[in-house]
Amino acid sequence: MSTSGSTIYILYNANASLLGKLNYVCRKITAPSDSSPCAACDLTHGGLHLDESAAWTKTKSRIHADVKQLHRDELTPDIREYIKANSIKYPVVLGKSPQPQSPLKVLLDSSTLSKISTDHSAFLSLLSNRAEEERIPLTIDNPQRVKDDIFRPAVQFIPQAVTPGHLTFGAFVAGLAACLCAASARPFLSSWAVYLWLLNRVLDCLDGAVARARDQTSDCGGFMDLLSDFIIYSLIPISVSYGLVQRGMVAEPATNLWLPVSLLEASFHLNNFVLFYLAAVSSQKGSEELTSVTMKPAPIEGFESGVIFTLMLAFPRTLQNLSWGMALGVGFGITTRVWQITDVFSVIERKAGLVKES
């Protein structure tokens, strides 16, 4: 894997010797349930495990840098001197640029690590943000980059006259056509719905790849892309259910079909409200804790939604079961995030209260 040339140091609050490991085990066992003597150990090893966790191995592979994991008795003299001179508390994540004589920088301190030690997505997000702030070159793989790698060969065949905006509009039109076909009373037209939906997905991926390849990304383009996706996502279950009724393929009362579809649509709106409110408050307060909640994975995300919508259009008779299942998955994600958000808000309010008192 190519690297940026930068070095990331993850420093544990433990020694590598046998006595050091025994000492850490004792501290870990006797520590309160809501704290840990070494959040870095929790991040990379999942607690009291000798081997690195599979999750950390996958996370580390996404970091394009030389990642060094060091115990306190493994530190080089310059790192030890930097820690001592700046009174830095273990565990900590440091970074260093590839340029000669570049200084060490603190990227994630012990308090931040304790909040994200079980959330690798939040760790990568905060690590990337802090590296950018400290001007340390760092590239982290993400699903968007994977999609760009897949569609990059096709980008060169897109004429310069065709802009990312044109592709976004084409994706929107293809999505609307898929919904109209799915709602049609004619079986021949309904069979075309899945093909038009797949065309929508290809164009939706291609517009972003073209924008990034040509350095034409914009907030307006991102907004229109997201808006068109939301419109199509909302229309697909409604269109499929309407088409089933039109073609007389509903053997039971139509209300039994509309109920799961209605609940699914409601779950979409609730989920969007939670995410957008969280993003707005996070941007306003600049809270790393809120960012970590936003980055937590949910049972139903973009890829899962695409698969389920494809199944709805390809096999309309499965709509009822798919709607129940998807609504349940989205609902579970909403409940989990709301639970986490209330905890984070409590922490932020307590911190604000302490600041006012001081």
UniProtKB/TrEMBL annotation:
Coiled coil: none annotated. InterPro entries: CDP-OH_P_trans (IPR000462), CDP-OH_PTrfase_TM_dom (IPR043130), CDP_ALCOHOL_P_TRANSF_CS (IPR048254). GO terms for cellular component: membrane. It holds the Pfam family CDP-OH_P_transf. One of its GO terms (molecular function) is phosphotransferase activity, for other substituted phosphate groups. Keywords: Transferase. GO terms for biological process: phospholipid biosynthetic process. Belongs to the CDP-alcohol phosphatidyltransferase class-I family. This is CDP-alcohol phosphatidyltransferase. It comes from Vermiconidia calcicola.
